[in-house]
Write a structure and sequence with these properties.
This protein is of the alpha/beta class. It folds into 2 domains: 50 residues; 132 residues, Rossmann fold. The protein has 8 helices and 5 strands, in the order ααβαβααβαβααβ. Strands 3-2-1-4-5 form a 5-stranded parallel sheet, with helices on both faces. The longest helix has 25 residues.
Length: 209
């Protein structure tokens, strides 16, 4: 079944809006039953129109178009996006730099800040890591660009595939025992949900070089 909400934060905002709408209906009904009915009808029509508009439009993004001969690699990573293991894995799939690389860095956030839609700090940190990663990929001779994605990595992959027809997904995590994504089953969820070959790359940032 398709999830009508893009993220948990969107679902939380919908819940707050529902409570507010219910309160308006109760107040209107207390004044006059017909007024309460009219308020309910207006709010229902507005909710339906907003729902279908959001489904149809989606976020405005730049569509990435690769050259016909190039392999298109979607890279998904957050704290490990600058890891040497990830760079090596990308280079192995792009001999001579003959690939279009699109990096998505989901915005990690605390549960409290996520539910209150306070994502500025998380997105800023993710953007900084993404920028450094793109510079490193460029220095390695790779044609790379990217974006900060949804806090939910599975949702971030879905959003990216809408604008970037990837031939392969490279998903990077911390080692088992230190990776929240592995604990949540993100790798298996991406593999099962999307019909695109997936490579899981483990990056150990605590390893002594």
């Amino acid at each position: 079944m398709e999830n009508p909400f893009r993220s948990e934060a969107a679902a939380f905002r919908f819940l707050l809006a529902t409570i507010g709408a219910f309160a308006l209906i109760v107040i209107g009904s207390a004044i006059n039953p017909w007024l309460g009915l009219a308020v309910a009808l207006v709010l229902s029509v507005g909710a339906v129109v907003l729902y279908w508009r959001q489904r149809g439009e989606g976020p405005a993004r730049h569509r990435v178009v690769a050259e016909p001969h190039q392999t298109r690699i979607l890279v998904v990573a957050n704290e490990t996006v600058e890891g040497a293991e990830l760079l090596t894995a990308i280079q192995a799939r792009a001999p001579g730099g003959a690939a279009e690389v699109y990096v998505v860095c989901p915005a990690l956030n605390s549960k409290l800040r996520h539910w209150t839609s306070d994502e500025d700090g998380a997105r800023g940190a993710a953007q900084s890591r993404l920028d450094r990663s793109l510079v490193r990929l460029g220095d390695a001779g790779l044609d790379a660009r990217g974006e900060v994605g949804d806090a939910d990595p599975v949702q971030a992959v879905e959003d990216a595939l809408r604008v970037f027809g990837a031939d392969e997904i490279v998903l990077s995590t911390h080692p088992e025992g230190r990776s929240h994504w592995l604990e949540r089953g993100v790798v298996d969820a991406v593999r099962e949900r999307f019909d695109v070959p997936l490579t899981h790359v483990v990056v150990d940032l605590e390893r002594v070089s």
